[in-house]
Design goal:
This protein is an alpha+beta fold. Helix 1 runs parallel beside helix 4. The two termini are 15 Å apart.
Length: 204
């Protein structure tokens, strides 16, 4: 099963790359879209803040363990759990009194999601907690956990996710990936969820 999973992952690389180049950006909730769009910033992440036309206000920043960072002329900013565009708005607001006219465009991007942590449990070969240092989808998360074990139910996977409103469960099915033409169809349908920090993947 593990060898089959790895073969599917390699096959998906080319297909996913094609889907990403052809598909418009959405909320990043599924494969083939922008991961950063829906990625919430975590302690330990590296971010890049770019204020257009202001070289003195361009920074590579590591989010502190308390989930904050400091930015010139703005002060300390709460970043934990926020989306990049929310940080952009905070920085822009903080710079308003520095300009007579409109504040230059602010761009915030996650250069290294090193704060991304998740767990995989259930019928996998190497369950545990993982910090990959990059964005991963559900299929890659299973690979990091050693792949599904022999009797794993790949059509009954659950992702338990922490949200501001509490815990929510996302159902996922990867069984079709192991059928003929399943990989291409799954990517085209954007059926592979991206993993977010704090997720717990349960393979029954």
């Amino acid at each position: 099963m593990k060898k089959i999973l790895m073969a599917v992952i390699f096959a998906l690389v080319a297909v996913t790359a094609h889907a990403q180049s052809a598909a418009p950006e959405t909320d990043g909730a599924v494969a083939g879209t922008s991961n950063q769009a829906a990625y919430r910033i975590n302690a330990g992440d590296d971010i890049e803040v770019y204020v257009w036309g202001e070289e003195r206000l361009q920074r590579q920043i590591r989010i502190l363990p308390d989930g904050t960072f400091s930015f010139p002329l703005v002060g300390r900013i709460e970043a934990q759990g926020k989306l990049p565009y929310e940080i952009e708005a905070v920085v822009s607001k903080g710079l308003e009194n520095q300009y007579r006219g409109q504040v230059p465009q602010v761009t915030v991007s996650v250069s290294a999601p090193t704060g991304l942590q998740f767990s995989v449990m259930g019928r996998v070969n190497a369950p545990g907690s993982f910090t990959p240092g990059r964005y991963v989808n559900l299929l890659e998360a299973l690979s990091l956990a050693g792949g599904p074990s022999q009797f794993a139910d790949l059509d009954g996977i659950s992702i338990v996710r922490k949200t501001p409103a509490g815990l929510t469960t996302i159902r996922a099915s990867l069984g079709g990936l192991f059928k003929r033409s399943g990989a291409a169809q799954a990517v085209s349908k954007r059926a592979i969820p991206n993993i977010q920090t704090g997720d717990t993947v349960i393979v029954p």
